[in-house]
Amino acid sequence: MQHRDGYIIDVSYPLHFHKEMQPIWLCHTIQTLGCAVPDISKPYRYCELGCGPGLNLLVAAACNPAGQFTGIDFNKKHIASAQALAKTLNIENIRFIEASFDDFAANNSGKFDFIVSHGTWSWLPPKAQAGILQLIYQSLEPQGLVYLHYMCYPGAARLTALQKVLYEAAKITKGDSVQGIQNGMTLLRTLANKGAGLFVDNPEIQKELQALEKELPAYLAHEFLTDYWHPQHSADLHRIISQTGVSFIGSANGFENMDTLSIPGNLQPILKNLPGQALRETVKDMARNQHQRQDVFQSSPQTLDVEKHLDLMDKTVFKALPNMPAPGSLEFKTPIGIIPGPADLFSPLLTALKKGPQSFQALRQLAPFQAEPGLLLQALAMLMWADYAHPIRPEQQPTPAAANLQAWLNSQQLPLRLLPECGTASMTQTSQH
């Protein structure tokens, strides 16, 4: 293995796309929770810390011409390939900078409306985490949004023993990090097959190993071979981030913002009676056996009054995505089990969206949602979570670079379909889980 500041650099991070990081998704999700958000119909600035090869940022820039996008990564190969690809595809509203987070924070003088980071915090040394905190403190605009993905307890606890074996096996492997992972996975499978007590006493860890065996070795290398591998309790993470002056607003995963759906019903009364946000979030993590979070924080949050909130939601226009099913009842396969989507609720909504883009104002005139805007918000959030629908960009500037990027995605056989009118992308149906 080759490390820099404790993180592997000898294997490139696989190309992954996370819709929850995209500016329109973030703004809609936080506006749904009743907070004012950056106006992305006007020019704005977006920074991704730990951009890797740049796929998320390239999609964002190609599909959102109003934004200026900056990607930071200390892996020279990542930055060089991302810069070359952006130039080849003529994506002009993007820049990639090779730097550690602490160095970038120390030298940056610009301001950002969005600071996002996926798959970095829980794998970083303290000085890099300090760089993230410094950048948030000094560079986030008022009402600016921070997206932070991290591993959390209690769910991540089941990975600790597996991670230690993979890490120690890789350290004594002669070869790169992929070879190290392969050796470690072989050892874990042998231990499981031979009845090691860890797997006998904890059947769920057996399932976890089976899931890991389906992943790319390069992904597992980045996931498990850092010198700094530390899940956290969400309450502890929130206290750390609050030192920068931002406030926790909710999850970028809209499903997790709906306690009535994402928390088992028999536990919901307990949550209602718990004082204190830290305790409530901790109990939610326990109720879901949460192993990772996609938290959103905001600088100087402003709560919208009911009239203003409804007015902004009414102006939001939603579009059916290619994966949207025919009208009828739905089944949502969620982390806590299958949640039914009743036909009398979803059929009118699906029928309307299949006719073409629909505003929230128009959709709440449908029979199931008259005088029930909150119910419509939940239904739309579930459709977004399932990749069936998405808000469209508030401005519809041309996106010529999107066609270039889509052609490249196709040439790489990456199962990603750009949705420029929505400012995002969607996994193609063959890749849906």
Automatic annotation (TrEMBL):
Keywords, ordered alphabetically: Methyltransferase, Transferase
InterPro entries registered for this protein in UniProt: Methyltranfer_dom, MeTrfase_reg_dom_prd
Key word Methyltransferase present: yes
An example molecular function term from Gene Ontology annotations: methyltransferase activity
Signal sequence annotation: none
Residues covered by the Methyltransferase domain: 41-168
Positions of the Methyltransferase regulatory domain: 218-297
GO-annotated biological processes: methylation
Transferase keyword on record: yes
Name of the featured protein: Class I SAM-dependent methyltransferase
Organism: Advenella alkanexedens
